[in-house]
């Protein structure tokens, strides 16, 4: 064992009552560190010797026997929790020891733990996605199953339960894409609970002959060359529409740069006629960090000059402030993206362009128009910062038929 657990009387300092605190001593052999955990029990040295050193339980009566059984139960549980860890870790041990025993099988407890972990790691968007999923599951559990989300356990969620949840969501007008997002998130929570040895793999409700998460292929929507020219030449009726158009095309001209990355762009990232950054969406998902380099054009330089921070320090654009917390950054980026989407849609409506255009279309438009102009898959894959070429191929496979048709027709356009 890589640890040693025992119940000790901490006689380093006597309390005013004349007693000492009884504590759980845990020693980690790998780190050679020990911690003493308070059990809210005080005893004199004589009382402790009586109930703990006496190996014959039949001689113990009343309060002494009760105290002995309580301490034994604590020590047994501590050992059980420690045994379940492949490598002993004080942090995980403390979490498992001091939670309620029912938390192991509690869905909301595990969701809340993951949410707080993501907030601590500044992954606010990820924490929000877990909150949305939990709220959706709570709505179904409480309205259809008459079970409060605080009481929902993993063993309750069977394949039949999930199929009922899917039908419930469809009846509410939710798409299969939304259902897939929420059930995939729930599957992650199941996997984490199994990995932590809190639940058995036997109750896992996903997979072969069990619940199958809907597989959906989201169509990548993009503007063709003619539509791009129409949007670029369109007149803005107010400052917000001009801002929306400028930033939409800034994203397009910067290889479909995500709006979060635009907001996080700093003047220190700019060197001569280029800037470099790491894509926020994939930064924590890969061990090897890939820097993306964007070459500035006259247009992108003009956008930076027009909207850039005049002090030329910190963030380039006045979307965020250096002192903003992760939560504040998340809200500001979300609000800015909503502003762009609202006003780019107004321009589109006034110019007979697709009314569902959004910031995502800038990235997809960059990809499909680059392909149409003859750029190789390898070039597009690198520009989009995809993990490998297969991702890019699947990305292109998701574009609308018109985009594929344009690309096919362009092959003989020498």
From TrEMBL:
Membrane-crossing residue ranges in chain numbering: none
Xref: PROSITE patterns: CB, TYR_RECOMBINASE
Any GO BP: DNA recombination
Domain Core-binding (CB): 109-194
Domain of life, per lineage: Bacteria
Tyr recombinase domain: residues covered: 218-408
GO molecular function: DNA binding
Assigned protein family: Belongs to the 'phage' integrase family.
Protein known as: Integrase
Organism (species): Formosa agariphila (strain DSM 15362 / KCTC 12365 / LMG 23005 / KMM 3901 / M-2Alg 35-1)
